[in-house]
Amino acid sequence: MKFLIDAQLPRRFTVWLTEAGHDALHTLDLPLKNRTTDSEVVERAMQDGRIVVSKDDDFVQTFLLTGEPTLLLISTGNIGNVELERLVRANLASIEAAFVRHRFVEITRNSLVTHE
Predict the structure, then answer these.
(1) Sequence-separated (6 or more) residues with CB below 8 Å from residue 111
(2) What is each CA distance from 114 to 21, 33, 84, 98, 108, in whole angstroms?
(3) Do residues 45 and 77 lie in contact, with contact meaning Cβ atoms separated by under 8 Å?
(4) In this predicted model, what pLDDT tens digit does every residue of 55-81 receive, in sequence order?
(5) Which residues pair with 42 in a beta bridge?
(6) Other C-beta atoms within 10 Å of 103: how many?
(7) 13 touches 88 (CB < 8 A)
(8) What pTM, to 2 d.p., does this model score?
């Protein structure tokens, strides 16, 4: 799978996904880095066939209005990077499976939720 990690998530997120065999970019890897607008993130994700990974509700609103981008929403509230890594690694197989049938997946501290 191909992912595009939004600015408010740690760059290390790309390392976790890459180590699991995925192709992952962070907004810091884009020409405008973390100044890349949400619409530019969506455009790049669609162009490259990437799943946007974000904590930003703006991407949810865009998805609900347009059906784009394919989205992994991190709904954990404030969470340390170590705990976030543990959560992602522990649930990565379930996340991968969810994206076989769904285009909007949400992970909380306690569950994985798929949206239609």
Answers:
(1) none
(2) 22, 29, 19, 7, 11
(3) no
(4) 999 999 999 999 999 999 999 999 999
(5) none
(6) 16
(7) yes
(8) 0.96
